[in-house]
Amino acid sequence: MSARDPSASGRPADADATSSLDWARAQGLGDAVARAVAVRVARRRRRRWAAAGTLAVLVLVAGLWRAGSIGWPGRAETALVLRPAQRTLPDGTIVELRDGAEIAIAYDAAFRRVTLVRGEAHFAVTKNRMRPFVVTAGRVEVRAVGTAFSVQLAPAHVAVLVTEGRVAVERHAAAGGPDLALPPAALVDAGRQLVVSTKVESGPRAVDAPQVLAAPQLAERLAWRMPRLEFSGTSLAEVVALFNRHGHLRLVLADDSLAELKLSGVLRADNGDALLRVLATEFGIEAERRDDGEIRLHRGR
Questions:
Q1: How far is CA 161 from CA 91, 103, 128, 252, 259, in A?
Q2: d(CA 112, CA 106)
Q3: Of 137, 141, 194, 213, which residue is least crowded by CB atoms under 10 Å?
Q4: Do 169 and 277 fall into the same domain?
Q5: Which pLDDT tens digit goes with each residue over 51-71?
Q6: Domain boundary residue among 223, 240, 260?
Q7: Structure pTM?
């Protein structure tokens, strides 16, 4: 007996599921099949909800942090602030860990040592001149006393980006293999990045001079540290409040009727321009920028 396509008979798929259930009951299998049918019907209904709500849900697609976090219709109204994982070390140093990053801590009386096992981390170091703070990543060491910097351990390089103060980037003496073409201590100041190649090859490895990063480049490199704002069926009034609080904007609803407009999506807190683009293209809401930095939102004229 071949399987029958429900659509060929012109009957709804759910109707065929019902007739199958009648047969199963006659065989004494009604309860088991009823549960299976209920699951199938629920899945179909969710797909229909998703299709019906696609236009509303995707209004924030231009600025989504990750598509998998879009809020779907029927989900409870929520508004969340998502931040990178953060740890406070025994000396008060604060470490932010990018997704997938891992560190190991080994403090002693002379040094505060941290090993970056994988990924990228940002360190805001507590000052202690008598006890240097050292981060080891592969065959590279980064030394600081009281400063802020990120270290990225990639398959072919280690990148050190300083956001405050100055660090010294050195060879990790305990590591074997070909030497790195690093001076005894390459100094990297705030706003600069040093990339050290760690490819396995014979002879010294070239190291570029510390690179000055323009403000947009710096912001892009550290974008993973920026809070993500996740909202599902959230009122525009609350979305505006979130962006003002965490994205340092000055958004104002000039039209009270906009307050209850519902939005769903995930955006970086510093990506206010994406929000404004979506409001303009999907809802006809204009953004009036004032000389004092205030951005007033109102319906298009």
A1: 22, 17, 21, 36, 41
A2: 7
A3: 213
A4: no
A5: 333 323 333 433 333 323 333
A6: 223
A7: 0.64
